[in-house]
Amino acid sequence: MKQENPFRKNQDITVSIDGMTGEGQGVAHLDGVAFFVPDTIPEETVSAHIIKVEKRYCVAKMTELLEPSEHRVQPRCEAFTACGGCTMQHMTYAEQLAQKRGFVEDAIKHLGGLQNVEVLPVLGMDDPWRYRNKGSFPFGSVDDSTAFGFYAPRSHRLIPLHDCPIQDARITELARQIAAWANKYNIPVYDESTGKGCLRACMIRVTSDGKRMAVVVTKGKLPHETELIDRLSEVDSLYHNRNDADTNVVLGNSFRLLKGEPTLYEVQNGLSFAVSPQSFLQVNPMQTERLYRTAIDFLDPKPEETVVDLYCGIGTITLRIAKSVRQAIGIEIVPEAVEDAKANAVRNGIANAAFLCDKAESALPALLQKGIKPDAIVLDPPRKGCEPAVLEAIAASNARRIVYVSCNPATLARDLKLLAEQGFSVEKVQPVDMFPQTAHVETVCCLYRQKKDFISVPHESNNADYLKNR
Ligand code: SAH
Prior knowledge:
The protein has 470 residues and is of the alpha/beta class. The chain has 10 helices and 21 strands.
């Protein structure tokens, strides 16, 4: 029988940190109990105050740093710890990358049961700050003045910000301008608890060619509209979004262009992608380029091939693949993203890419049923990973090469295990740091089919010419 947790809430302890969770919290072990201590680093010794006790673990808050790690640095952000976003700002960037490689390696070994897979060093940034090209901030009242910020972790308490050092500086500059407009004209801030007030949030994007888009979200009509337009005169695309619902969803359904261009464009590797207020794009353009380049390198596409791109979003990967293969088929569940993907294909003059709006778990089996024989499959699922039906369909297909792009090492490892059981070997694992200062890590994996009884299908039979029949 497991003994009860002998520790009590409000107890003070001294612990040595011996690991780190995938969320970037230090972990220590004492008397068979795990302690999660935020803002610490492996090999540090700290005094901590227990704030939560569960059966097998405790959460504790560091009260004194007794022996600091050589990897500790002064966090740059005024809101470090309070905001909860950048849980690794107290570590050197080199150590952040080492820890992230460890997250991927641990997951693949322990959750995936794959002992002999080498995880390559994480591809990091030369300058790991100001990389985000999109910010979304709620507004709140602080000392009778309107401020923007982030909500504290698991709460709706506003942590006001003057700046956020992982955002492009032009983004927080615009948020400050909107707050200044609200303060000047006494625009009441929306209050979630009462449903009263007007100004809710703003969303701001900057494209790689320096154009700016701002969306101001209100409950009810937009007051002092002319003054807002005047104040944001340098913005290239300004929208009002009206969200009258008393929910915590940021954007409502109604968008109105107040000024400038309805759509901006993001150019990646010679392809241009439409950026409208709701389009999904990766938020770190420099690292996105490296992520996609790695995925294409691993895919090694050939001119006669058919490639399926599952979870394709607006077709950023599909259209790149299409340039090098006979046909590329993207599958995505969100109808607006599929519309964007189709328009992106047309605008870029790409005729050999098709997009299907469906769940990957039903669309891939249906494609195979129709006689499509993909030579390779790319997949980039959301954090929860793939439904088993997707992995089974991949195994049942003719695809010999799989490129799996993942934003969650735990679900990646679970899915790799299943693919390995189906006869694929994991050849390369390349983590890419898309979100410096945070604990998130993106990983690109390359798998080859190893099945001995696999029968090669000649390319001539690889058609049912899907593109003509779509
Ligand atoms: N590859 C794209 C998008 C990856 S994000 C890029 O790099 O930009 C994951 C995408 O999967 C999202 O666009 C989401 O809408 C989509 N998605 C989520 N569940 C899905 C499902 N069951 N089937 C197909 N697409 C899904």
